[in-house]
Design goal:
- This protein is of the alpha+beta class.
- It has two domains: about 80 residues, Glutaredoxin, CATH 3.40.30; about 100 residues, Glutathione S-transferase Yfyf (Class Pi), Chain A, domain 2.
- The protein is built from eight helices and four strands.
- The longest helix is centred in the middle third of the chain and has 23 residues.
- It binds glutathione.
């Protein structure tokens, strides 16, 4: 069975959300990060960087949440074209490399937040999900970052009603409720 390594309230919840969306059987290996279990040799064999999440799927080991999401989408998601895979990668990388630092790094938030939210608000004003009408792994990556805003930062997103509506829609999904939603 696929093993997901994470800690309480860690980015492993993002991967867990997607595993629940896909309906894949998995074991959640909860590391005691306060006690430094993610720095112990047993775990460093799986992720030498000592961060969570990581997965072990048979003989295969992988870390970095974005890489794990894309692997799971490729292996267990719907078959898509090269172009659609590239678009999924675009959004997953955007979530982790642009959106997340733009929102959570205080130094850049003032400048980045309006730019990012205005663009996303425009997109969600005309479609339900990032790729159109269908929920995909892109929504797990971007939706998880956006859903952490009310949970962790309590920023005022009222100027971006379509973003607020999107956060509400993804947060109501049963798989979200079982995972990220269970922490708030
Ligand atoms: N870009 C990485 C970030 C991983 C990361 O920073 N994980 C945190 C938990 S959310 C961690 O393992 N922190 C432990 C530490 O830095 O000692 C990903 O998305 O997987």
């Amino acid at each position: 069975m696929l093993k997901l390594y994470g800690g309480v309230r860690s980015r492993a919840s993002i991967v867990q959300w997607y595993l629940e969306e896909l309906g894949i059987a998995y074991e959640f290996v909860k590391l005691d990060m306060q006690a430094g279990e993610h720095r112990q040799p047993e775990y460093l064999i799986i992720n030498p960087i000592g961060k969570v999440p990581a997965i072990v799927d048979g003989d295969f080991q992988l870390w970095e949440s974005g890489a794990i999401l894309l692997y799971l989408a490729e292996k267990y998601g719907k078959t898509t074209s090269l172009e659609e895979k590239a678009i999924l990668a675009q959004w997953v990388l955007f979530a982790n490399a642009t959106l997340s630092p733009g929102i959570f790094a205080q130094a850049s938030r003032e400048r980045e937040l309006p730019l990012l939210m205005t663009a996303l608000n425009e997109i969600f004003g005309r479609q339900s999900f990032l790729l159109g009408n269908e929920f995909t792994v892109a929504d797990v990556a971007v939706g998880s970052v956006l859903s952490y805003i009310p949970i962790m930062l309590k920023l005022d997103l009222s100027p971006y009603p379509a973003v607020l509506n999107y956060i509400k829609q993804v947060s109501e999904r049963p798989a979200f409720q079982k995972t990220i939603g269970a922490r708030s």
